[in-house]
């Protein structure tokens, strides 16, 4: 999978620009700098994104250099994610299918990131510090390193472990568990050693559904543990997150009661 991402991103720009768009609602998109037009600082990286929930994507729509591996990787990471949702449900004292029944996976997206070698890495970031607008993120990273997590007012390196995946709790999981699970604030450093590749699978609800609302799970609430967040559709949460940009503040503040 990592080799396939490198093959895509290291193609000639004339080939890649056919897929370039800033409309992340398209099934397959090549884009650069998530918040290019927001007030937040620019990041040093490109992304090829696949809307895994799209029913219109055909095998021939994928770039030929990674056509075989991306759908296959998607199937494997989806299977893993479903098992993780079962384990997290059990950890909350709920039925193993509880989170799956909340459709925490029906809007999944696969993001194939490529951070080019940066001549002045001290002047920018690969990705600015943020928490994901997801329930869960399953991350495959290469050997270069640069991923850091914010813990007790310090940025801590998350060193790559061969054949291992990193799993992050996202903001929407924190919201529905009423702070039982905390989202992981993380960032990626730019570097002048070599390009860095990572693949993030976002476990998300369906962005096309405005009717389904997400709030603190009622089974987790009590007189001593009242709801801390208001209900919101997943689409509205993501819209607020995208409009705010990666400005270093938590999107959850906007939804607090």
Structural class: alpha+beta
What's the pLDDT, averaged over the residues? 92
Share of residues in strands: 15-25%
Total number of domains: 1
* CATH homologous superfamily assignment: B-lactam Antibiotic, Isopenicillin N Synthase, Chain
CATH class: Mainly Beta
The largest sheet is: 6 strands, antiparallel
The general outline is: globular
Unreliable residue stretches: none
* Total DSSP E strands: 12
Order the strands across the largest sheet as they lie in space: 1-2-3-10-5-8
Tell me what the CATH architecture is: Sandwich
The portion of residues assigned to helices is 10-25%
What would the CATH topology be? Jelly Rolls
Q: What radius of gyration results from the CA coordinates?
A: 18 Å
Distance between the termini: 42 Å
Figure out the total of helices.
6
Order of helices and strands: HHEEHHEEEEEEHEEEEH
How does this structure look, described?
- It is globular and about 60 Å long.
- It has helices at 2-9, 13-16, 69-91, 98-101, 171-176, 234-244; strands at 28-32, 46-51, 109-115, 127-130, 136-141, 147-151, 154-157, 166-169, 186-188, 196-203, 213-214, 232-233.
- It has one domain: Jelly Rolls (Sandwich), CATH 2.60.120.330.
- With 257 residues, it is an alpha+beta fold.
- The mean pLDDT is 92.
- A 6-stranded antiparallel sheet has the order 1-2-3-10-5-8. Strands 4-9-6-7 form a 4-stranded antiparallel sheet, with no helix packed on it. A two-stranded antiparallel ribbon has the order 11-12.
- The protein is built from 6 helices and 12 strands.
């Amino acid at each position: 999978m990592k080799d396939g991402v490198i093959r895509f991103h290291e193609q000639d720009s004339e080939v890649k620009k056919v897929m370039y768009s800033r409309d992340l609602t398209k099934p397959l998109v090549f884009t650069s700098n998530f918040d290019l037009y927001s007030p937040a600082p620019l990041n040093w990286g490109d992304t090829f994104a696949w809307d895994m929930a799209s029913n219109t994507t055909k095998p021939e729509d994928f770039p030929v250099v990674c056509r075989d591996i991306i759908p296959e990787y998607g199937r494997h990471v989806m299977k893993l994610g479903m098992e993780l949702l079962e384990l997290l449900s059990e950890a909350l004292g709920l039925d193993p299918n509880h989170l799956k029944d909340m459709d925490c996976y029906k809007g999944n997206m696969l993001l194939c990131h490529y951070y080019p070698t940066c001549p002045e890495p001290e002047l920018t970031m690969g990705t600015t510090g943020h928490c994901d607008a997801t329930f869960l993120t399953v991350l495959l990273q290469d050997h270069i390193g640069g991923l850091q997590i914010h813990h007790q007012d310090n940025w801590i390196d998350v060193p790559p472990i061969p054949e291992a995946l990193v799993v992050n709790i996202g903001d929407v999981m924190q919201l529905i568990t009423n702070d039982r699970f905390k989202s992981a604030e993380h960032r990626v450093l730019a570097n002048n050693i070599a390009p860095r590749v990572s693949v993030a699978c976002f476990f998300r609800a369906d962005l096309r559904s405005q009717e389904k609302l997400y709030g603190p799970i009622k089974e987790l609430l009590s007189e001593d543990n009242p709801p801390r967040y208001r209900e919101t559709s997943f689409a509205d949460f993501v819209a607020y997150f995208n409009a705010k940009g990666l400005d270093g503040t938590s999107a959850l503040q906007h939804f607090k009661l």
